[in-house]
Amino acid sequence: MYLPNHIAIIPDGNRRWAKKKNLPSFFGHREGAKTTEKILTTAIKLGIPCLTFWGASINNVTKRESREINFLFKLFTAYFKKIAKAKLIHQNQVKIQVLGLWPKYFPKDCQEAIRGAITATKDYSKHRLTILLAYNGTEEMVAIIKKIIKNPPAEITDEIIKSNLYTKDLPPVDLVIRTGDEPHLSAGFMMWDIADAQLYFSKNMWPDFSEKEFLQTIENFNKTERRLGK
User: Fold this and answer.
1) What number is the average pLDDT over the span 33-49?
2) For domain 6-222, is the CATH number 3.40.1180.10?
3) Is 193 a catalytic residue?
């Protein structure tokens, strides 16, 4: 089986999953975190080099109810402390990076946990786990345009744009997976990097997304001819 080099995941549906079960949204986020661990484990075992999760948009951590936002911060803090010490991460040399405006919006203890995971894995290169926090693709593009025009090059090229992206060190995305039964993208998600990506929309909410379906998406990827605009 041919494996995608880079898979990006929009893990949508935590809150709707909880609502359908008449549970508080916190339960959905907690179950979603468990799914993230399962899919990460499966991807590493398969040998997929790069995996990206969209953990939270800017709106997710600024415009929701304060109780839910605080729960998310606690969840992220616990998660990063856990993966910083996880055998799976260190045995498979997974380099963790976290992109977005999290240093601006996240509380100090959460920032420290994130930086701890980044530091603990900074010398690894076999796999790359990227988590997007307080991230919007539209904000990213505005930011790089402002950066480029401050010191404009003689010519603006693809390479110039890529070198200024938050994701400048990542390869193009081959496969985008979005859960939650809503077949669309959001907030300009990685708009430059997914230009030639194959898209897969799951009808399952993220807490119900299984390792089996993850493998099926890769099988579908193998069966689809990628013309890359040709």
Assistant:
1) 96
2) yes
3) no
